[in-house]
UniProtKB/TrEMBL annotation:
Native source organism of the sequence: Morchella conica CCBAS932
PANTHER family per record: ASTEROID PROTEIN, PROTEIN ASTEROID HOMOLOG 1
Bias-annotated ranges (Basic residues): 571-580
Top-level taxon: Eukaryota
Residues annotated as domain Asteroid: 153-389
Signal peptide positions (record): none
Name of protein: Asteroid domain-containing protein
């Protein structure tokens, strides 16, 4: 996650190199930091599209467009004789990184709230589609740097892994590792004399063993920002850590340690300080700078052992991989009874409404129950801040098979629409209008098409209600992805079919579906809403006068999901403590069995 000014101080000691080299040489092994690749490609692809007025939802690239740009970028690197050997993704981040992760989520929420405050009543609308432009990473593409009001879309890592694992050339390169990706990139580059492509200058602090420095000190580091594609070929600024350390006469890791302790020190001062410390150490004087702090810092840059990290070809979405990886760390890294931890992706939603992550909560609880006895601590937006809440595990029911194998095509469409409606029902709110639910069903039915081509009744326009419904659908989809991955990791039944993010999450398609949904999508919504109104009628027919029926403690009807969960006592806690959601007691969330509900 970077040491301030390290790149700036060492940049003068890096040199531009041309790929492929002249005279011709064997391809250079390349090892890529996967998360950095995803964010870099998305930003450059976005900057290659024409600037247009509107809002972030209109401006965002579709995941399928992003995936096309990603493969094109990798193809250009390959054409430059950079042999892509591995693309690593983080499968576990140490507890020491939690403050930084919280800080990044806080910053993303701050940006979202700031944008919301500027456009609280209506979102800007793009009057006309942007003019056509050359695709990103082609010879005629024009990349214009720009800033965006919001953080990156929530699922670009999932889209990246999907694109790579489904591509014949790159599927074997993918590996989600049980640590930070950068350490595996450095290990492989040092062992092969290859190059790491990353956005993190920390890679420069990984040191080759003394015998490797003597035998092969040619391993290098390239920052994404320092790659210029020349079609075909590339010119890159390459850092050679062993050569730089030899030129400066210092240990780069120790230099980084001192820079972290004093980020405002000038580079000459840091060099002199390192040399004085080294002289004192050689003379036998006790050196305080080589104490506990240094040892802990150095341990972060230890290389993983050979054979660790897997052979690739089946990368798991990093946040889910981290959740699964924490199973094996329970006895060593956690106290007795401590739960797992899930860092949910940051969604573009309406910060003035309840969290979109209420959708899919019960599905996630069922997934957690497969790997954690007690539950999982989820980190996401709740109210006006990023917070943690304990989600109790739920035992998965046998009706899961009926849920995904009941003979219905696109079963996830009904499941997600039901989940969105259920969240409104649980909150005692009126569900969204049918056209929005039909838009969701249209978007989620990846292969569907309208029964007849109709002209739009008006301009496609985002509203905050549409933003929230769209975000809730994404939360419900990701919750099913969590369940799918956990089922696969535990060797249990897997979903027969489930769409990737690029196949079913698309804001433009959602807006299209609001007016162009076909009969199949409308039928799903009619049936979901008919079931909803039936539950309302049943509740009105007698539940308010039956003292044995679970209620919500204030005379209002309980939703069917509350009734099935037997949530009377928890609902009363909600009313005694304003602001607590169904099933939350301080920071604990109980959930009913979603599979029993969906099986009705």
């Amino acid at each position: 996650m970077g040491i301030p000014h390290l790149y700036t101080h060492l940049r003068p000691y890096a040199h531009p190199e041309t790929f492929p080299p002249s005279p011709p040489a064997p391809p250079t092994p390349l090892f890529i930091d996967g998360p950095g690749l995803a964010h870099h490609v998305y930003q450059l692809a976005l900057c290659s599209t024409p600037q247009a007025s509107g809002n972030p939802w209109d401006a965002a690239l579709s995941y399928s467009t992003f995936q096309t740009a990603l493969i094109r970028y990798l193809d250009e690197l390959s054409a430059a004789q950079l042999h892509i050997r591995k693309i690593y993704f983080d499968g576990h981040l140490p507890a020491s990184k939690r403050p930084t992760r919280h800080s990044r989520l806080d910053d993303a929420l701050r940006r979202l709230k700031s944008y919301h405050s500027l456009h609280a009543h209506s979102l800007p609308t793009r009057a006309t589609p942007p003019p056509p432009s050359a695709p990103a990473f082609t010879q005629h593409a024009v990349c214009t740097p720009r800033t965006t009001p919001l953080s990156a879309p929530p699922f670009i890592l999932s889209a990246t892994i999907d694109a790579l694992t489904s591509h014949a050339t790159y599927t074997s390169t993918v590996s989600t590792v049980p640590a930070e990706a950068e350490s595996y990139c450095a290990r492989d580059a040092i062992n092969t004399g290859g190059i790491v492509l990353t956005g993190d200058s920390d890679l420069l602090l990984f040191a080759a063993a003394p015998q490797q420095q003597q035998q092969n000190n040619g391993w290098g580091v390239i920052m994404f920002r320092d790659v210029t594609l020349t079609f075909p070929g590339a010119v890159c600024v390459v850092f050679r850590p062993c050569a730089i350390a030899g030129t400066l006469g210092v240990d780069l890791a120790f230099l980084g340690y001192l820079l972290q302790a004093d980020p405002h020190a000038t580079f000459p001062v840091l060099q002199q300080r390192v040399r004085r410390i080294e002289e004192r150490k050689r003379s036998g004087v006790a050196v305080g700078e080589y104490g506990k702090g240094w040892r802990e810092f150095r341990a972060v840059y230890e290389l993983p052992g050979e054979g660790e990290g897997g052979e690739g070809g089946g990368g798991v979405e990093p946040r889910i991989a981290e959740l699964l990886d924490s199973r094996g760390r329970g006895e060593e890294g956690q106290g007795e009874g401590e739960a797992g931890r899930m860092w949910l992706p940051f969604l573009w939603e309406d910060p003035g409404r309840g969290s979109a992550w209420d959708a899919g909560r019960a599905v996630r609880a069922g997934a957690y129950g497969l790997v954690f006895k007690e539950g999982v601590m989820e980190v996401c937006r709740r109210g006006q801040r990023i917070s943690e809440a304990f989600i109790r595990s739920m035992e998965s029911a046998g009706v899961l098979k009926r849920l995904v194998r009941g003979g219905e095509d696109h079963w996830w469409v009904r499941t997600i629409v039901e989940d969105v409606v259920g969240v409104y029902e649980d909150r005692g709110q009126t569900p969204p209008e049918r056209s929005l639910l039909e838009g969701l069903a249209y978007m989620l039915s990846a292969s569907s098409s309208p029964t007849a081509v109709a002209e739009r009744s008006g301009p496609r326009r985002w509203t905050w209600e549409k933003v929230q419904v769209f975000a809730m659908a994404q939360a419900a989809w990701y919750s099913l992805l969590v369940l799918k991955e956990v089922l696969a990791a535990t060797g249990k039944d897997q979903f027969e079919a489930f769409p990737s993010v690029a196949e079913c999450i698309d804001g433009s398609r959602f807006l299209d579906g609001v007016t162009l949904a076909g009969e199949n999508e409308k039928k799903v919504v009619r049936e979901v809403m008919a079931a909803y109104y039936a539950r309302i009628r049943n509740a009105d027919d007698g539940e308010d006068i039956d003292i044995d029926t679970p209620g919500n403690g204030n005379g209002k009807r309980s939703s069917s999901r509350e009734l099935l969960a037997g949530a009377s006592s928890e609902k009363k806690k909600k009313k005694r403590g304003k602001g607590k959601k169904l099933g939350e007691s301080s920071n604990t969330v109980d959930t009913g069995n979603i599979f029993e509900v969906l099986a009705d």
